[in-house]
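Supplementary Methods, section 5.1.

A reviewer requested that the exact input to the structure prediction be made available. We therefore reproduce it here, unchanged from the version used in the analyses.
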Amino acid sequence: MKTLLLVPLCAALFSFSGAAYAQIDSSEPQVLIKTATQQILDEVRRRAIEPNDIPRIMDIVNRDILPYTDFHRTTLLAMGRYWRTATPAQQQQVVEQFELLLIHTYSGAIGQLRADQKIDYPPLHIAPADTDVVVRTVALMGGQPSEIDYRLYKTPQGWRLYDLNVLGVWLVQTYRQQFSDRIQQSGVDGLIQFLTERNQQLASGKQ
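The structure derived from this sequence is encoded token-by-token as follows.
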């Protein structure tokens, strides 16, 4: 995925932001995505988010993203059949390290958000019985439209984001193959070690 294309993607994934804002309405999936994206753009207008300002990004995530994004579901789907063979302790470690990896991987894109970023939201038609939907958006990057999709599912507490699609590549699908390869090589503990070491590298500024 190209970094610039990740900008609006991250606006929804990492930006349910700001204690000054009211709680986001998660009763409608498109409303949730649109409001979250707009709030991060408002945040950028007030003060730019530096790509390397991990503490600020982490603060936003820890404070506001968890109520609206299901990292547990994302990780479960990324691990596929290996999730069932992992112990509860291993499952929790993978969730924690995978969440941290996504934060590190996409934090730089948040810093590239522009105050005048344009994002369109095509009409979304949802049947009353629908419990899993895709919210499509069109981001203008250098005058070129790029479609970015968000997959959400319905819970008793509202809609929750758990997968993202840029240029036809879904996040879960991408990591499922990587996780499978790593687990086949060295087991679930090997995956945990790999994710932990990768996060340490990213935290120290290494790519």
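The two ends are 15 Å apart (CA to CA). These observations are discussed further in the main text.
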